[in-house]
Amino acid sequence: MHEMVKGANVGLAALSENADSVIVSLSWSSPSGEGDADVSVLLLGADGKVRGNADFFYYNNPAATDGSVQLLGAAVTENGSEDRIRLDLAALPQDIDRVIIAASRYRRAHFGELENIRLVVTDASGEAMLGFSIADAGTESAFVFGEVYRRAEAWKFRAIGQGYDSGLAGLATDYGIEIDEDDDQDGEQDESSGFHEVVVDDGTAGPAIERVVPDADAAGPLHTRPGAPTDDRAHDQADDRAVARAAALAAVPAPRATEPGGSEPPAAAPDADAAPAPARRLRTAKKKVTLPKAPKPSLADNDTWRGARLFPASSLKSDREREMRATSVLLAVMSQVPEFGRRLTAAFGAPSGRMEAFTEVTLPHGDSPKRPDGVIRVERAGKLWTALVETKTNGNSLKSEQIQDYVNIAAHRGYEAVITLSNDVALEGSSLVEVKTDGRRKHKVALWHLSWAEVTHQAQLLIRHEGVRNEAHAWLLQELLHYLQHDNSGCHGFQNMGPAWVPVRNGIDEETLTPGDPRSVQVVESWERLIRQVCLRLGGELGTKVVPVQRARRGTDPVSRRAELAHRLCVDGQLSAEIRVEGAPGVLGVVADLRVGRLRTSIEIAAPEQGYPLSWVKRLMRQLAEAPADLHVQTLLEGDAVGPRGTLEKLRPEPGDLLPKGSEKITGFRLSLAKSVGGARGNAETGFIRGVDAAVDLFHSRVVTRLERPRPVQRRAATPEVAG
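The chain above was modelled as a monomer; its predicted structure follows.
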C-alpha cells in the first residue's frame, strides 16, 4: 500500500489495474469511545465549485442517481468503525473535475479529540491502494481528507488534510454550497409525524412553512412538495420556534419562466432599494423517519390462521433445502430491488448497474464440475462484474476446500469475487476459511463474507428507516425480512459460542483455567462475534449507527488485543465489551461474569454543566420513572472518591441520598443493571446468546432511551481557511 503525506499526489492507475471503481474508507478512534464523525462528498467542476446542491452527498443524500457516488455507511473495524464511500469514477459526468472527500463532527466537536484519523483507498478487488493519516488535528470540526481529480483523462489522488474550525458550514461554503447546520435547530422536524419543516421567504409579509415528506428520491431536506396535505396534529406541533428562526433560514427563489422556444424573458430592472436575493441554503438536520405503524387487525377467524407468504419457510425439512431456498430468495430480491442489491454488493466493488442472479449453476473444474449456490452478475456500460456465491445456513460452517475451488474457478474464468454467506460473523485477523492465492496470476479474486445478520440489518434499514422508491419493492423486502426471521429458515445469525465454550466455562467454575490456554482466545473471538451481531440487530431496529468500541493502544494488532482479553478472562472470568449507539448520552458497557453467571449492562452520563446537584438527581429520577426498580445508580465524584449509590427502589423516595456528604464535585452518574445469563450451548441458539440480546434490549429500551443527552456549550465559529 502506498503511504502518502500531506500535499502529495499519485495516479490511481499506477497503483492498480482495477481503479475505475474504488472504496474510500475514513476511520478514527476515540479514547472515550464516543467520538464519531459524518462523511461527505462534493463533486466539483473546473471552477472548483459544485454545480448545485445535488452534488453534495451526505447522510440525507447518500447516493447519486447515476451510481457514481454511494455512501455505504459504517463498517466494523478493530478500532470501532469506519465509514465507507464507493466511487464509480467511470460513471462520473464529464464536467466533474474533482471529487472532495470530507468529514465533519456533530455540533462542531474537535477532530483533535479523535485518534488514528486515517483514509484508505481500495480498488475493485479489495486490495488497499493508498493510505493517508492525519496526525495534526486540533480544534478543527471538519476536514477535507483528500480529493480525486482528473488529469489528462486519468484519475489521481491528492492528500489534503485541510481542517475547518467553522465545521461543515465553512467547508461546504468554500465549494459553493450554503448550509444551515443542525447546531441550533431543535424541533425543526416533527418526530411524531415524520415531516421536515422548510421555511421559504417568498417576499410576502411573512415566511411560509411548507411540509416536506421524507422521500427516497429526495436529496435531503431540499425535496419539497408545495401544497402537500398535512394533518392538524402536525400543524399544532409546529410552534413559534420555526417562525422565530425564519429570518435565519435561506430563501428559495422561484424558478424563472421561459418564453416559447426556450429563451428566458428579459430580466426586470433591478430595484436599487431591494435586497439581493439570498442563495438557496442546504439544511443538514438529519432525517428522522418513524417506524411503520402497527399492523391493522387481522380478518382471520381465529389466531391459528397463518397469513399467506411469498417465501414460506415452514415446509423446509433439511439443511440442503434451507440453503437452496435462502440463496434463491435472497438473490431474487437483490436483483429486483435495486437499492437492496446495491447495498449488499457495492462494498465488494460491484458497479451500479443491471443485476442478474442465478442459482445452482454448474461450472467446469477439471474432471469434477462444481456447483456454487449462486452467481451474481452486474452489467454497466457493457462491462460485467461477476461473483460466485456459497451459502450456509443453520450454523453450518464454510469448508475451506470448497471455497478454494471456487476461488480457483473465479480466477480462471475472470470473475471478480467469491462471496460467502453464513450464520457466522467475520472478524479482522481471524479468517473463517483458509484460502491460498496464486501470486503469479494477473487476475485477482476478492474473497468477501456476509453474515445473515448483516443481510437482515440492511433489509431493516431500508424498509423501516430509509425507504425504497417502489411500493412493490418495499413489500418484497418485507417478505424477505419475514423469511429471514422465521424460526425454520436457518438464517438467524451467529448462534453458537463454539467448541471451546464448555471447557472454558468448566475451567472457570473449577478454577483450573490458566493464562495462555488457546481455548480462551477462541471464546474471546466468539464473544466479539456476538457483540457485533448485537450491534447489527440493534442498529437495524433503531435505524442508527451502532458499533462496538475497541479500546486498545495505538498500533495494537487484533491478535495481540485478543490475547490480552483472553488473559483477563483466565484471571477474572469476565468478558467485557462496549457499544456506541448514535445519539445515546454515553457508551453502553456489557460485562459477562462467567464465575457467577451474571451479565451487567451500564452507562456513564456526565453531570449537567449548569444548575444545582439536587436538581440534577431529581431530574434523573424523573427520566428513570419507567426504569426497572433494581437499576443501580452511583454518583461519580472527582478524583478517586467513591460516591453514594443505591437502587432506584430506594432512591426514588429520597433522591438526595445520591448527593455526597462533603464538598466533592459531582462529575456524573453510572447506571447499571445486572441480570442472570444462561450458559447452555449447542447447535441451536444458546441461552447465553439469548441472555445477552435480552439484557442489551432491556437496558437500552428502559434506561438509555429515557436519558437526555447533555447539550454541549456552543463554540464560536472561526473563519475557515481556504484549501490551497
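Residues 203 and 273 are 14 Å apart (CA to CA).
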